[in-house]
Amino acid sequence: MSATVPYLIRAIQLNIITLEIKFVLCNVSIVEFFKDSGGLMDFKTVNSKKGLSKSAATMCEVRFDHHQVWRLHWNDFNVYESLNAAFENVKQNYENLVDIWTVNQELGYSDVRVSPSAMSFVTSILKPLQIVPIVQVENIQTLIDVQEDSSSLSNEWDNAGGSNFHKSYHRLSEINEFLDEKVKNFKGRAQKVLVGYSYEKREINGIRISGTTKNRKREIIFHGAIHSREWIGAASVLYIADQLLSLYGKDDLVTKLLNIYDWIIIPVLNVDGYEYTHTNNRMWRKTRQPNGGLFGCIGTDPNRNWDYEWSKPGASSSPCSEAYYGKAPFSAIEPKLMSEFIYNRREDVEIYIDVHAFSQLWMYPYGARCDKKVPEEKKILKAAQDGASALKKIHGTNFKVGGICKTIYQASGNSVDWVYARANVTYSYAIELRDTGRYGFLLPPDQIIPSGEELFSGLIGLAETVATQEKRW
Ligand SMILES: [Zn+2]
What we know:
The protein has 473 residues and is an alpha/beta fold. 41% of the residues lie in helices and 16% in strands.
């Protein structure tokens, strides 16, 4: 027997013990554990560095040391499709090794996160396609650490209404505390809204913000974090809630818009996933509902599970895919509850916005069909363009306006198509916030307020045009 064999056996034993502890403490399936870890090799690296005596929190946290984001330029749509197929194939076995962050059809590139252990393999996929990757982010973990440091500062915000609140990202409990505080401080103008309970029985909360006039109000509904890793969406809509409450009676246009529209804001729709991004895996996108079986991957893409053109191109049938469309339309409780919430008030809803990140886009239906145009495109487009130009006035940030399919990618079973086609809400949009790839999902906390400011201006611009087009004033 070689001298290295006992060490190898010991290493395997240690890995099994760690795996068992993690399985129990972190509430993950065995397969998810390996996939989260980016495969056994990354897992060994992490644990040999960190030791096995770390706290449960550290044990549960997936690290992204030296994971990079690569920008892959493709000139031809066929190349793009072969790339996607190759990545989907890798993900069948190792979910966490590669992960497409965004696609830019106009300029012809995809941004992809690549783990260190996948780099040579991905390079071998790129070579025959003649793609030379450009490194966009050197080390993802460094950016995650910056965001986490900001969250740990959150103890320092004086109270949920304090001015420091928007300087950092927050856990769900702090967001709920913020909503409660606003409802308490703005009696008669702010009401708590409960959309329902998530798969893991968390409350999906929102806030309804109104003017004091007694006329019939139409509604503007928007939510953030349907994809849990898109923290800037939640943070920006919270900033908007604050602005609407404090500017009523002070700013003419805001006051007028609150006298004709109730604004319903749900900061975090995918509450389970959002908590999971804080405790276990910063890059988690889907829900946390298991897909069955001890070895099954967890989660459904809550923006591919809506009952319009469900399971069509632009979504995946693989439970391990980031774009998994689920077992059936609305098999994930969170989009189902959101759809019921909207459907029940469809006579009143004038504008719906699903706030995502990142890529700086302002999009409308359809995502499922690239050949199908919305009949009211002229006025839908005009409102979006006015929104995007009001947004740009604040910090000069450009948002591209267009239909989902041609602007980002084909996406069937998405929220915006369903709200437009099934709830008959003409002004139904998906907005992708900052940035265009420098930080991607890991936007530093000092950009929360600028992002909130420009989105606020954009939504006011949008609402003003819609109110005019629909003769609401
Ligand atoms: Zn998203």
